[in-house]
Design goal:
By secondary structure, this protein is an alpha+beta fold. It is built from four helices and three strands, in the order H-H-E-E-H-E-H. A hairpin with a 6-residue loop joins strand 1 and strand 2.
Length: 86
């Protein structure tokens, strides 16, 4: 949550991204999941989904006016690991 808030997402968007990640990857913090995903939302009231990261998928979704958020679990896990060590 702090990560998404730090990159200037609203609380509501950060909460929705975190909720979706927790539902689809329940062990993402303890497993050290190394996936790179994108969070795609059709519209403000539309359905949200997580899909494997692919530059072409990002560009296509963005070109269609969809809300796209990178969710790089390896980067998030690495930052958490650094904070715990530090």
């Amino acid at each position: 949550m702090v990560y998404w808030l730090s990159v200037v997402f609203t609380f509501e968007v950060a909460r929705e991204v975190l909720k979706t990640v927790k539902e689809e990857y329940p062990g993402f913090l303890s497993d050290g999941e190394q996936k790179r995903l994108i969070f795609v939302k059709e519209s403000q009231a539309g359905a949200a989904k997580l899909v494997e990261f692919d530059v072409e998928k990002v560009v296509a979704a963005w070109a269609q006016g969809k809300f796209v958020v990178p969710v790089w679990l390896d980067v998030i896990y690495g930052r958490l690991r650094e904070k715990v060590k530090g």
